[in-house]
Amino acid sequence: MKDRKILIVDTSVLLYDKDSIHSFPGNDIFFTLTVLDELDKFKDGPGLLGESARHVNRFLDDLRSEGSLHDGVYCNDLNQNFRVWLSDLSDVKNELKNLDYSKGDNNIIASAIQIKSVFPDRKVKVITKDINLRVKCDALNIDAEDYYSDHIDLDVEDFVGFSEIELTDEEVDALYVDNKIEMELDLNQNEFLIGKGVSQGKSVLCWYKGKDLIKLHELKLSQTETTPRNKEQKFALHALVDDSIPLVTLTGLAGSGKTFLTLMTAIEALDQKKYERIIVTRNIQPVGREIGYLPGDVKDKMAPWMSPLMDNFRHHFKDRTYFEIMMEKGLIEIAPLSFIRGRTFSNSFIIVDEAQNASIHELKTIITRIGESSKIVLMGDTDQIDTPYLNKNSNGLAIVIDRMKNSKHSAHIHLKRGERSELATYASKVL
User: Fold this and answer.
1) Which of helix, strand or coil describes residue 13?
2) Where does residue 138 fall: left (phi above 0), alpha (psi -120 to 50 degrees), or beta otherwise?
3) What is the pLDDT of residues 219-271, one digit of tens each?
4) What does the pLDDT look like over 85-94, one tens digit per residue?
């Protein structure tokens, strides 16, 4: 029994991933009254938060038929013991009078201190996505850690979607003549390449598909007169226009062209009747926040977060008229990420902006909504994460890039260079 840890699971973990309740085999899981009260607030809500709260509530309710949650219910298939901790905390609160117990986190801390005193021979640990709660726990000598189920081990920037490869002069010539050569290489599918020949200045841009190296041709979007400005943008544009790649991920610093290239490609594809509409979505809430507090309808509520998109329209078309006309005709639809569940997007070009602020569960929700003849583009900067429960190795965009990097269904490009202005590029590096 001493080898089994007591894990006090915070609400933030349960809302972030409903399956987290099943993710701690060989341990005892304790729920405090505060956590149950917080789950109750979300159970009627829309989107992933409401779904997660209901899933956990139903699971705990089902456990009641197996035994008493007050004493603990053991699940043999999970090798987990579940218990609700409802003991009187007055003694702990009198000892720690400097904590504000109107705050749920501080009540969880009080419960953790009490559980440690009741089980002095057991390892007691708080599992939470809340950084501030982990800091408080450490200050009070309570073990605490993040929920690591969705963390990736490698820095996502280690994979940029393209690399250099050494070729013979004959192979370079063959690519220019035949446009492709068969070559089995230890590369990811849809990885872009800068092929360097032996002779000085002999090179070729290509990508790896199947078992072929395919030479990239010059691309220009005729409808919007858009031309890539550097090799990374050229790689990105090829991935964006290729109908055989339904998922594209783009990362890079501000002003590198992620949004502009994607938007111009979407407009071009719409003009060519490849798709029926453009869906634009993004995460507008950390865990626990909804868009209801903003005035107006969904369009009005989303407007502050759609400004970067409209800025690109204004920059290219010199005003917003074209954007507003497309909105009125239903050719562009704004859809909050938290309200995607249950929908299916067919014959659509889906743009997910600021995807680094979404969890993997949110991105999985929208990716699994993609129907036939659709394409989805996830864009973001993993150095600019605003959601307090996510970091560079746990945000949804980084996880999608890592898990999909060798799939024939996806391509990834990291745009290294800023094209907004010399000042913007320099400032992003030094400030």
Assistant:
1) helix
2) alpha
3) 998 877 888 999 999 999 999 999 999 999 999 987 788 989 999 999 999 99
4) 988 899 989 8
Give the span between the Cα atoms of 19 and 149, in whole angstroms. Answer: 10
Residue 291's DSSP bridge partners are none
Do strands 203-209 and 191-196 pair parallel, antiparallel, or not at all (unpaired)?
Answer: antiparallel
- The residue ranges of DSSP E strands in 12-72, in sequence order, are 28-32
Q: Of 426, 422, 413, whose CA–CA distance to 231 is shortest? A: 413
Burial class of residue 253 (count of CB atoms within 10 Å of its CB; 0-12, 13-18, 19+): buried
Q: Say how many residues make up the chain.
A: 431
CB atoms within 10 A of CB 93: 16
Tokens describing residue 189: 């599918």
Contacts of 176 (CB under 8 A, 6+ apart): 204, 215
How far is residue 176's CA from residue 164's CA, in Å, rounded to a whole number?
17
Do the Cβ atoms of 246 and 409 come closer than 8 Å?
Answer: yes
**Chain CA centroid to CA 250, Å:** 12
pTM: 0.83
Please give the Cα distance from 264 to 262 (Å, whole number).
6
> Cα separation of 331 and 97, whole Å?
58
Residue 344 CB neighbour total at 10 angstroms: 11
The structure tokens listed for 159 are 């994979």
Q: Where are the beta strands (DSSP E) in 110-200?
A: 124-127, 143-145, 162-166, 180-182, 191-196
Residue 398 neighbours by CB distance under 10 Å: 29
